[in-house]
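User: I'm writing a tutorial on reading structure tokens. Could you give me a worked example: one chain, its sequence, then its tokens, then a sentence or two explaining what the tokens reveal?
Assistant: Sure. Here is the example chain.
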Amino acid sequence: MIADWVLIVLVVLAVVLATAALAVALSRRPAAAPTESAETGDDRQRAAVVANPTKVAPGTRAEVTLVCVDLGWREPLWLETTVDDPGTGQTEEALRQGVDVVLACGGDGTVRTVAEVLAGTGTPMGLLPAGTGNLLARTIGTPLNSIASATRVALSGNDRKIDVGRIRVDDEPDDRVFLVMAGMGFDAAIMQNTPEALKGRVGPLAYVISGLRAIRGRRTRVRLRFDDGPLLDRQTRTVVVGNSGTLLGGLVLMPEAHIDDGRLDIVNLAPKGIPGWIAVAGRVITRTRRGHARVEHWQAREIEIEAESPQPSQLDGDPIGDVSRLSIRVESSSLVMRVPIPPPSDTPDPG
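And here are its predicted structure tokens:
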């Protein structure tokens, strides 16, 4: 009996000693590194700005900071892109910092790079348009001519989930993304052959000048497949796959395209000569599917485009060189965008 009590006392003593030892060990462990807000005691919301310094006007940073402070946010985390890193590492750093929204400040290329990282994370993305095209900004209604107004939308607008296009180029191992349009042929040749200096001088008119130079080019043959459908052989001047139908100047190439419908729209343009282009232009201006027999439309979730020879190609207006094959799929509702209140339709801003 005494032996039993002795055993019980020893067990209890061992538990007490073990507990004490554990407490001492925990007290000696280095404390977890506090977050910046814990260090400063500042629990206000914070935005990160991924900015392309070649596009940002003087005073932009101060203007964005003023709006943040005015709305009760902390000063923004400012991260500039470089030639070697056009926004990927900067956006990843913003996510590591735990910011509440990431603002892409630059042209369509900067927007696309930031979106590629944010897609699927749930962290909202805002736009501070600073490029020539600003295609997504036109689609969602972000103010184009006021950084202060665009910042207010990015901080206090509505959240809208939009689709993202995923694209595999030739035999590249990794997907790229696009938010508005990907194209092969005439449209990409325009983007590829428009000098930056000309865009700086005359703005969007530079694309018109480049287009007039390229309009007399020849058609080429492509093979198309949509979802699990049959292969289609077509002559084309350009094949465009759109998440949105927005063009510059308030024109809409794909009237039925919407950035949150879970589908991509495809248009094949195959006009022959100047009269054909005039008819195609009339169809675009009137926003109908009618106007010329050389205009075809489809909708699909997966698209394959293969050209008989490498063709100029582009993603959201950024040339990606001459390619032979594009494999494209839609990623539905994967990117959270900050849009004006109330959210606009997909009718573009004519500004």
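What the tokens reveal: Confidence is low (pLDDT under 50) at residues 1-38. The chain has two domains: 42-156, 166-333.
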